[in-house]
Amino acid sequence: MEIRKSYGGFDVFKLIAAFLVVAIHTSPLTSVSPAADFFFTRILGRLAVPFFFMVTGQFILTRYIEDGRNGFAAVWKYIKKVMLLYLAAIIIYLPIGYYAGNYSGVSPLSALCMLIFDGTFYHLWYFPALIVGILFVCLLRRVCPVRGLWAITVVLYIIALLGDSYWGITENIPVVSGVYEAMFKISSYTRNGLFFAPVFLLMGSQAAKLKISVKKSGILFAAAFILMTAEGVVLRHFNLQRHDSMYIMLPVCMVFLYQLIMSWERGPAKILRTASTWIYILHPAVIIAVRGAASVLGLRRLLVENSVVHYLAVCIGSFVIAVIITYLLSRFRRKSFREDRAWIEVDRAALARNVAVLRALLPESCELMPAVKANAYGHGMTMVARELNELGVRAFCVASVSEGVELRRSGIVGEVLILGYTHPAKFPLLKKYDLSQTVVDPDYAVELERYGKKIAVHIGIDTGMHRLGTAFCDLEAIEKIFKMKNLRVRGIFTHMCTADGGDEKSVEFSRRQGETFLKTVEELKSRGLDCGKIHMLPSYGILNYPEYAGDYARVGIALYGVKSAREDYDASGAELMPVMSMKARVASVRELKAGESAGYGLAFTAERDSKIATVTIGYADGYPRGLSCGKGHVLINGQIAPVAGRICMDQTIVDVTDIDSVHSGDIAVIIGRSGDKEISAYDIAEQTGTITNEIFSRLGSRLQRFMV
Ligand SMILES: *Cc1c(COP(=O)(O)O)cnc(C)c1O
To answer: How far is the CA of 89 from the centre of ligand 1 (A)?
Structure first.
């Protein structure tokens, strides 16, 4: 079973790693003991950068490397982001590098080499190494399997070793040293995107497969690290190091260290994640600033000559500036999206909280398998799924194959189950994108089998809903599906259809479904069949019947923080938080004299001198037309504005006579809070005679979705 994780350990370790990098560039212990400083900066500190590469490998490359062809769009998006950061860093350091004379006598060709390999300032080598490394690994993956990738990247690392810490040996071999010297003309070090980064990127991408217990990882890391220390000391003693960033034991240490960090369970801390990147980028500038300030203030003895204080000053300075930049950037992002016409804000904290609350209702062994079908109930499928991936969610369900493909293309990892029917013409996509298909009935199983290639499936069992699945009582038919040689059974499930009712009949039926399903699974197991993951709970199942939790819980509406209807049965008392707010803009405000009318069919007539506002949302956005003529209302500046007349396709007129100041550009809240007032999804569902699920899932593709 997959261990449930939140990966918050990564965020904290990133910060630690950033401070280790600062140490490498400030040598904090020189004034204490050169040997201690060597250990701190040249051995311990060397764990930092491989860690950064591995995190990128795991979160950006896993999908592509597993697949070899798909998921490059997500990789490319990441590369563009890194390029932008690199560009920002180049601009920041251009004056300093120029002042230091780094660019004197640089030809266009050597400038290009600098840009691609060494970076334009000493610590900036990391960004081109990351970009080149990722592109190189992806390119290799196109032409060879993962095994080949291991061979090539390990050999490249060994070549790198011989031009780095082991140069003292290589240097004495005539022809070889010549080759290296030629290489060094292009890239000053072997520590770059071709030799150094690839192996760690690959290691990261495969790290989740390696499940080593915390204790074992701890012991093995300690052992490997002691050996690496010994290696470093010996190399230094014999003065063999040209540069000292690579050791034979470094990748070995990283394997176990990474397992340790991965098992560290804590909530994500995004601010640390972004801040550590900025610490990395800015610390050399802070070093210069600290030295400058020390000279001006006459504090050189304290701030510069005392290496420990110097280090702390640089760390604190970099951290403070990085946090400020992270904060300002998030503010800037927040501002920029408000410019849009009509949009949905997805509350990240509420989503994370709902995940935690729902997990707490379930036994440890049951994982959430969120239903992100129908654009994640209107919330934005890939955005939500990505966030869930970050929260450690490793299984999803969708309604259609195209939704599954979209998830994969945006780099979502974990199992993806298609709950509905897939036409045989689309079977190749199941395989290509590693999607699990539901076996909707025995005939469909035959069709899947006939495709002739291995397909991963979950077998649907009908325990009384009579929508999809093979009848539970037809054990022979179910067994036959299990035995089909092209079907790889990954799971078996049924669907509860009365779990939202608290009346006796509904409760009785839910229990009957639960018992029937468990008995069926037991029977199949006793026949020696491997059922894989078993699951039956939708949202109301989790809230009311957690005792039937299997391996997965297919949570839908509850994840988004509401029930289908306010009065629905909920025995759990779980405090879920609505995740969505929906907003639009006031486009135009105008006056109507008493008796004048407005909108299609002139369906609104002012009974008094009135003020109306046109809002930029309509039924094409999923704002139900049934809310026309005062049934619904929006909130503007914390006050209620009833819908005036008929809702149009793209706009809605509201009555703002009683609101003091309304201007073009003001925000109209359609769902969510404004001041002390709130419009909930329940309100809209009730006003239009439906459930929140329908309101959410029909929200239009034209609305932009943002995480806030
Ligand atoms: C949509 C769906 C779910 C999720 O349902 P909620 O009631 O929204 O939690 C679960 N299982 C199946 C088979 C579904 O179709």
So the answer is: 47
345: its two tokens: 């804000």
| 366 Cβ closer than 6 Å to some ligand 1 atom | no
The minimum-distance atom of ligand 1 relative to the CA of 542 is 9
For 122, list phi and psi in degrees, rounded to 5.
Answer: -55, -40
Return d(Cα 647, Cα 617) in angstroms, integer.
9
Q: What is the three-class DSSP state of 441?
A: coil
In a 3-state reduction of DSSP, which class is residue 104?
coil
| Token pair for 324 | 């400020």
Token code pair at residue 617: 């949302």
| Residue 384 to residue 559: CA distance in whole angstroms | 11
Among residues 138, 139, 145, 143, the alpha carbon closest in space to that of 60 is found at: 138
**What is the structure's pLDDT at 354?**
96
- Both tokens assigned to 101: 């004379």
Which pTM does this prediction carry? 0.68
Known catalytic residues are 373, 600
Mutate which of 398, 400, 544, 554 for ligand 1 pocket (most atoms within 8 A of beta carbon): 554
Q: What angle do CA 592, 593, 598 make, to 5 degrees?
A: 40
Distance 686 CA to ligand 1 centre (A): 21
Radius of gyration of the chain (CA): 30
Contact 457, 488 (CB under 8 A): yes
Q: What is the mean pLDDT of each run of 10 residues along the chain (708 residues)?
A: 56 94 94 93 96 93 79 88 95 91 86 90 93 96 94 97 93 92 91 96 91 92 97 93 93 96 79 91 94 92 92 96 91 69 94 95 96 98 94 95 93 93 96 95 97 96 97 97 97 97 96 97 97 97 96 98 96 95 96 97 97 98 97 96 97 96 93 94 97 97 90
| Cβ of 692 less than 6 Å from ligand 1 | no
